[in-house]
């Protein structure tokens, strides 16, 4: 699907080459590290500390109060992210020492190992807290015969992941950001509005109340994290604050000459592709409007867009690959990773990286964003 996929594929290949080089060709060096017990023991101790925090977290959450557990939860997830970055730090040090032939003494190795990991983590924390607008303009050929000048500006939000860390204040910040942006036609949320069942006690009407202040209509489809909660309870709460749940149905927006097709998360992908989507698209054929499909998982391939006449497919789920090196796994499991993709310059897929995070409150690979897609003649 275009230049982005080629670049990411090349990047993925380059990463594998570097990893193979450091592991295979420098196996003696890695053995030397283990024998010196420097990085090996450091990682082991870090994992031990993180495990202790994890156990204490669950004790606090289940036997005391989520208010007490919230800061511990943040520390725990930050520690998990730090462990990821210690792995990255060790790879960086191996490359520096062996590829560039730089010798480092053990005490310098020790400080650099933790220092580089800390710097990457701080960088990730900062990026995770700043949400920016990712703006795109798409010309719609199907509108060329329309006499009136049609303009649609869709705000695409995904992966809010409400939990003890991201609660009411986070929703207020999100709604205010959307309200302050000019000319938004409507907002779509493509799944994972909550993080999971363990934190249901925090996701109540008070947490979701700021959505009432939205000056735009909000359309929503569910994601995989909604499977870890009481969905009926959640959907009822969302409806009470004015969010429109497009549960496998089509919303015809006549004023914008488009059909908004909502696809809820379902583990049974063959059924979704072969039964549900054809049924929804058949309904949309009743008019000549363009089709905009919403789904959490980016499972559409180019041939699906053509087959079902989906002009624009909006999705999330990948977080744009939140952490390095998780982008390798994310890229291998999904048809797209992050950003806008086009096929034949007639069909488009936009995968937003999301406004929040799941797990570590870090973003070392992709920034947090909201998509702004302008459709025009």
Give short descriptive properties of this protein:
377 residues; Purple Acid Phosphatase, chain A, domain 2; globular; 11 helices; 12 strands; six-stranded mixed beta sheet; alpha/beta; 45% helix
Please sum up the structure shown.
With 377 residues, this protein is α/β, with parallel strands linked by helices.
CATH architecture assignment of the largest domain? 4-Layer Sandwich
Query: Strand fraction band?
Result: 15-25%
Number of domains: 2
Number of helices: 11
By secondary-structure content and strand pairing, the structural class works out as alpha/beta
Q: Which residue ranges are poorly predicted, with pLDDT under 50 across at least 5 consecutive positions?
A: 1-10, 22-26
| N-to-C span | 23 Å
CATH topology of the largest domain: Purple Acid Phosphatase, chain A, domain 2
Give the name of the CATH superfamily of the largest domain.
Metallo-dependent phosphatases
- The CATH class of the largest domain is Alpha Beta
Rg is 23 Å
Let me know the number of strands. 12
Biggest beta sheet attributes: 6 strands, mixed
How would you explain this protein's 3D organization?
The protein has 377 residues and is an alpha/beta fold. The chain folds into 2 domains: 3-128, no CATH class; 132-376, Purple Acid Phosphatase, chain A, domain 2. Helices cover 45% and strands 18% of the residues. It has helices at 3-24, 27-36, 39-63, 66-99, 106-129, 168-179, 205-208, 231-240, 269-284, 302-307, 327-333; strands at 131-139, 151-157, 186-190, 218-221, 243-245, 250-253, 258-263, 290-295, 312-315, 339-343, 347-351, 368-376. Strands 1-12-2-3-4-5 form a 6-stranded mixed β-sheet. It has a 6-stranded mixed β-sheet with strand order 6-7-8-9-11-10. A hairpin with a 3-residue loop joins strand 10 (339-343) and strand 11 (347-351). The longest helix is centred in the N-terminal third of the chain and has 34 residues, at 66-99.
